[in-house]
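Now for a specimen:

…
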Amino acid sequence: MPGTIADLKRDVPVYDEVDVLVCGGGPAGFCAAIAAARAGAKVLLIEQTNCLGGIATAGGHNHLCLYTSWGSDERVVGGVPFEMVERVVKMGYGAYARGMVDFELEGLKLALEQMAAEAGVKLLYHTLFADAIVQDNRCTGAYIQNKSGRQAILARRVIDATGDADVAASAGAPFEMGRPGDGAVQPCTLMFLIGGADWSKVESFRNSQDRTLKNVWAQAQANGDMEPFQDQIMGWWWTPTRPDQVGQNFTHIVGCDPTNAESITKATIEGRRQAFHMIPVFRKYVPGMENCYLISTASLLGTRESRRIVGEYVLTDEDILAEKTWPDSIGYGSFFIDIHNCTGPGMDRETYRPHKGFKYQIPYRCIVPKAIDNLLVAGRCISVTHRALGSTRVMPQCGLLGEAAGAAAALSLKAGCPPRRFDTRKLQDHLRAAGAIIDDKGIVPDSAANS
């Protein structure tokens, strides 16, 4: 194995000094940046790709859910995450129904950049977070790496929206990873997009079968036409604005460590291979896909699970199943406990599908890491258990966590106190005024987004 080399001592130029630095431009980071800027903070958002939206755009996942409580017509997510829906639908790039939005990837990229510009958020693309700057257990900024070289950003507040808790881990905040016992994480997926589909025929066929098409894939595997890496559809995302295109949540890559560069490289290569492998299978076995073809594979590998911070409170699956409420609620989760098989195809036995109207609150303490001040965490790397993550990790919920983090970062600056000591009642008042839904009083009937 290679050894080590002493890092060169050098002066690192300061790129910027800001009130709030947001690391990561996915739904969590985007919503955090918008909320902080609207609350009056000077905000810089850094993003490793060339767009906002994270897995929803660069990750090719052209479907966001769930904005309603499970199986119901009551909307439990509002604020900036729902503004994303309204904007992309109003622009003619998506369709919203039953608490879910399907959209064109490029359309959402444009919509989010418009919203960022309107809010006054400064963006820096093609930029990697490198290391946290920590002084006296306070995160005071970050080192970054991009085409301009290594630089520093000084910040009064930092929001970790990297998905993998990269900032928190670098800063020395405690974290956990994987399921109890063996530390295995949920498999990764490389989304891909196909064209040439006759969606009406595809849907008619699915409705005549088990909609996961498990029997179809079993037959394809028995005939030697399909490898057994997957046994069911995890998601076929379609929007009427692009009627012959279908987003494919289908590849299934187990054994990946999302915090290891070599591992995610191998997983990406395997995911792309699986995507190409499936095209002739679709053509042969799925009516309506006889003429389908591969348009693209995603730029980002879809990661379901990696690091989870240990925060001031760890939300458990027992809390979720009990549909607990919390005095420091910052929003609702409502998705089923969605856990993919960590060691093979399909779903894990820990998966749980709840009753109609299922919802639970998420406390502010879950986004506040132990040990490090001036740092908040938003998205799938918040303080939850492995099983609870199966529900909290979906993108509308990541967005509401980001909005709360962004607002708390800006408001705690005004209050002159660390985020962990900020009065959550003031945060809740601010979020309500901004259209967020944090308790039963804010729940509204679900209706189509503006068109």
